[in-house]
Amino acid sequence: MSGIFAKPNRNRPEPLWHQAEQAMRTLISSGEWATGAQIPNEERLCDLLGVSRITVRHALRNLEDSGLLSREHGRGTFVRSPTVIAGVRGLTSFTQEMANLGLNLGTRLLDARIIAADAQVAGALEIEEGTPVLQLRRLRLGNDQPIGIQTAHLPAARVQGLLETAASVSSLYETLKASYGIVPQEAREIYRIGEVKPEDAELIQLKAGSSAFMVERIAFDRSGPFEFTVSTMRGDRYEIRSVLHL
Q: Per UniProt, which keywords does this protein have (predicted)?
């Protein structure tokens, strides 16, 4: 298989993640990885390409965003036909979204702590599993009505001191910009329909098991991913608006 693609080489000018991505694109386009086939796991890809797990994750994320790969929780990563991703909108914070809608924003901090990154968080933030991350769980309100619960994860090394001041944070992005020089440049979101968990039901005033938007966001600044947030949003109080262009 290694003869099909050029193995990443540190002596070449292109970043290793780009070289790894091109190698995997070659495996897909050549038919070595057929449509519908499951590709090797991260550990095997590291051995195959001779790069770190963080580099592999960066390349996999780009291929997933391009519609060439599909990651299925608990099953693995599969090759799929390229898809069109529609509905691009501006990068805004929740605070700004509420202001744009003319709503008075309210935020209640439910929990703030330093935890070890699990596989999902580590993969999103392109860090090693077990790396300390700051987890912020917040109830978001508009005009005093619950809209959703957001659980944000940020690399602890980049936001030292934020744990102690978390209770006073209204706009996370404004705080990150003012105190840590972190300026969002891009965000990638996935929306799914899921069920409200029992521990969230009373907080957002829905019955456990009710349908709601489940939103995953990975936000990037010039240094890479700095935020992974998982949100449960009320479908009757939160809208997805898209402008499509030919």
A: DNA-binding, Transcription, Transcription regulation
Instruction: Return the CATH number of 2-79, one of 1.10.10.10, 3.40.50.1970, 1.20.810.10, 3.40.50.300.
Output: 1.10.10.10
User: By the 8 A CB rule, do 115 and 133 touch?
Assistant: yes
Q: Give whole-number Cα distances, 64 to 78, 82, 98, 243, in Å.
A: 10, 9, 30, 22
Residues 134/114, Cβ–Cβ less than 8 Å: yes
Q: Return the SS3 of 34.
A: coil
Its pTM stands at 0.66
CA distance linking residue 198 with residue 156, whole number of Å: 29
Angle, to 10 degrees, between the axis of helix 53-65 and the axis of helix 42-49?
A: 110
